[in-house]
Model the fold of this input.
Amino acid sequence: METNGQANGLKSKKKDNGDGKDNLWSAILEEVQNQGNTKLPSNKNVLVLGDNETGKTTLVAKLQGVEDPKKGSALEYAYIDVRDEYRDDHTRLSVWVLDGDPGHTNLLKFALSEETFPHTLVILTVAMTTPWGVLDQLQSWASVLGDHIDKLDLTPEQRLQSKKQQVQKWQRYTEPGDELEPTASSPMKRSSRNLSDELDDDDEDNPLPEAVLTTNLGLDIVVVATKTDYMTTLEKEHDYRDEHFDFMQQWIRRFCLQYGAALFYTSAKEDKNCDLLYKYLTHRIYGLPFRTPALIVEKDAVLIPAGWDSMKKISILYENMQTCKPDDYYRDVIVQPATRKSGGLREAEVTAEDEQAFLQRQLAALQAGTPAPRADSPLRTTQRTTAQLDGAKIGMNPGTPGNEGVLANFFNSLLYKNKPGSPGTRAPDASPAAAAARSDAAAELDRLTRAKRAPPPIDLNTSEC
Done:
């Protein structure tokens, strides 16, 4: 009985050991299977904010791979196809584009709600075609975004958690090449964590660098300066120099530090940084690899990932500023040219006074013996007759006896010559009186013209003798 009991005990022990090994291998296989079958989430969103004409629709179309962007109105919706080459998986990234009109900010509630808040990345767009408005636009839209987030029905714990995650992401940034090398089984061994990752106590103990995340909205933010190909035009037509672009860049980078944002200079026309922006978005949202370091050499293709920059690195730009200082008021250095307001000239059209109405007023004034009233048209100075100008030059008054009748006949002939509305009628110059008036008018005009052209001091008859 004892032997049988021992045998049963050994058998039971072996069974337990076997179950332990089975449980261990099952756990490993289950973990590998879960890692291999991880699907890209389908609830991620991108919210694009910016003024009108900053290239929001064109930028989204470029990220989609669409050649012919079609602009909507108010709040546009689009999606970007995202593919994970390592897992052979794909999903759709939702994109919301808000119109630049401040009257449409109430539509933010449809794009950014309590449910979508933890899964949303925000893009703030500005355009190099209006560099003088860049800083004001960034601050304005950041304020709109902050006000909207404050109105969301989020618990204090949710707000605190989201802000801590932004701090953690900034502190966890590593230069490409410094991270652990990926393997076939774990291609994203040291890639950025997602919003669902747990916080590390070590990260919380490390203080943030100077001026970083002083305004923490709890969201991933990417600042995109579009249309950087226009910087060449700014140099040629508006005398922009490198120090102007450096002054702009350092202000934009200081804004990015304040909100913990990444910075991209893009040009859809020249296809600069658009592909890298797509990869960075998928890296930030889905944790896919992004191995491009910061790019600050080319002034029209700047790329600065969140977590790389600092005030010390920004201060390098100060060395090139000769005529301005880093803390100068932005619009005092980047001034809006007055020539860009030419559109207002087309709104105020100038209409010339009708010729017959003008001549009728002149005739009435001459017949009354009073000076002719000034016309209301801005072009009145160009509509004076040759007889009036010549008479003024030689000291003639239109009301002087002997000349009044001649000038009256002259204006009468202009009024009724080819009068509109009576084609084919016999001209009134067929009468002897009209013919005599025309002859007198012609003689008077000829005399006035000769008196104007001939210098008074010279006596032509004496010189001929």
About this structure: The mean pLDDT is 78. Residues 2-36 form the longest helix (35 residues). Residues 307 and 419 are 81 Å apart (CA to CA).
